[in-house]
Design goal:
With 351 residues, this protein is an alpha+beta fold. Keywords: 4Fe-4S, DNA damage, DNA repair, Glycosidase, Hydrolase, Iron, Iron-sulfur, Metal-binding.
Length: 351
Amino acid sequence: MSPNEFSQRVLGWFDAHGRKQLPWQENPTPYRVWISEIMLQQTQVETVIPYYQRFIERFPDLRKLADAELDEVLWLWAGLGYYARARHLHRTAQILCEQHGGTMPLDIAILQQLPGIGRSTAGAILALAADQHQPILDGNVKRLLARFGAVAGWPGQSRVQTTLWELAERYTPVQRVAAYTQAIMDLGAMICTPRRPYCAACPLAEGCAAHAQGQEMAYPEPKPHRKRLVRATRMLLLRTLEGEVLLERRPPVGVWGGLWSFPECPLEVDIAAWCQEQFGLTVVVKPPWGMIRHNFSHFQLDITPVPALVSGPAGVVMEGERFVWYNPCHSTDRGVAAPVKRLLAALATEL
């Protein structure tokens, strides 16, 4: 199938069946497209839509985002996961305001130097917002092209990645680039799905090598299996007589970076002694709650919540950048991870 026929078939399908009412398709400025592309990384469209709408309502432009506190950005992001994306958004907005006058440069080389923006994301911003002739290679497009070209191997391998980029460049048309870019993403998401692809409805089925082989599920090859690690921790639900609980801001990088969480106590230590040593708090430890299992991409975390009542003065733990006494009944704009949010809600029901 020639590149021209490929793109025309994709565009014809899009005109008839593609998604045209997504919120970021309305007034697709570079800023709005950028926000949507970052949110859509490893996250489905249906999940992203309400987050995107709230985010854009609060931060309608680069300067509003750059001037915001990171805590508020993380709070609006809470639940989407992969929180480095939110930190990168915030930092990139600041860089663009400091170095580019509060506008997003329409230059792919400059965009790729910004935090959290790789080649595919930069290409999508420029194609969708400026109709620039830039290929993209998100997860859905990788799968579609791997099947169409029967490209063997896992897409994370550099050799396979190079081949897929060559295909993406070959088939991206010069005209209607924005429509084609949305179309190829939609086709991957809606038709060339990971399981049970709808080949009968695919405009590219005639030229698809994997379909001709009857081996659609053989492409792309999965990531080599690694046994998922299991980690365990104890989260301390330290509560005062007034009902406030102690939250600690996590380091800026790593799991839940920059979010607020409960202090985590080593499994082997005595909790009361540890609280006295770490915080100067006298506590009465209560029986632990049931374990919570939280899955990350590379490991699972087994959380044992342990409530403890602070029996002495709580003011010895200084509030500030690292700690805060938080009333779960009066929510404030603080970013917390999903399991912490659930535990806070459970604490609120006890007050």
